[in-house]
Amino acid sequence: MEQKRQLKAVVLAAGKGTRLHDDEIDAPKVMREANGKPLLRYVLDAISFIERKDIILVVGYKKETVINAFTGYPYAIQNEQLGTGHAVMSAENQLRNYTGALLVCYGDMPAIKREVYEQLINTHFEEGNDCTLLTGESTLKMSFGRVERDENGSFLQVVEEKDCTPEQLEIKELNTGVYVFDTPLLLDSLKELKNDNSQGEYYITDVPAIMREKGAKIGILKRNLGDDIIGVNTVEQLKMVERILSLNTR
């Protein structure tokens, strides 16, 4: 069983954050500060139960800024922004010979707490899943994918908001974009990703459905995450995150 408890992480941190950009601050999105600390710092602190050498940062825009600020972390370079699936593919060289579990999360979602990551990982191992998604409900108006389940409540697929039908948009269960995967199955499924969607990108959100088609066991941890699932894409969301983080530390 010890082999099964192996754990690494990939943190997606390559984005420019175009809607956050201003003339005074030209930094990668994850280096924008909330309450005096980079967004990425909060995420790395929350997953610090994983050893630093086992946390791969996927960097891109102004990558040296991230690499220099967070020394000691291995990194992979995403030269083109072709979607979240493509970002994870960028770390393939570091993961090729690794057979354990892999947490995939975002460097611009600073409000998810350590206990949530730990519960997701524990659920993955305890249920013997090949992929476990973190889902939740929120009143936030953000572009989260919807989680479709079958009549038995089992996972079917994630549909990105831009690709949803009006019926799918009514689904309340949102995909946070945080997962734990069996690494060899993940790498195998990434090869089958297609970019025939409204963004022309390779979505990591398509991977659980691909794995399910192969007979993999897909699990879900559904939490009442409220505002904690906010990702930072705009100045308004950055201000909102600062308020949430301030409340979380009281």
Radius of gyration: 17 Å
- The structural class is alpha/beta
- Sheet with most strands: 9 strands, mixed
Mean pLDDT: 92
Which spans of ≥5 residues are poorly predicted at pLDDT below 50? none
Can you write the helix and strand succession as a string? Answer: EEEHEHEHHEHEEEHEHHEH
The end-to-end span amounts to 39 Å
Beta strand count: 11
Strand portion: 15-25%
What attributes characterize this protein structure?
250 residues, alpha/beta, 9-stranded mixed β-sheet, two-stranded antiparallel sheet, 9 helices, 11 strands, 22% strand, globular
Task: Describe this structure as you would to a colleague.
It is a single chain. The N and C termini lie far apart (39 Å). 44% of the residues are buried. The protein is of the alpha/beta class and 250 residues long. The strands form 2 sheets. Strands 1, 4, 5, 6, 7, 8, 9, 10 and 11 form a 9-stranded mixed sheet that branches. The protein has 9 helices and 11 strands. Helices cover 29% and strands 22% of the residues.
Briefly say what this structure is.
With 250 residues, the protein is an alpha/beta fold. It is built from nine helices and eleven strands.
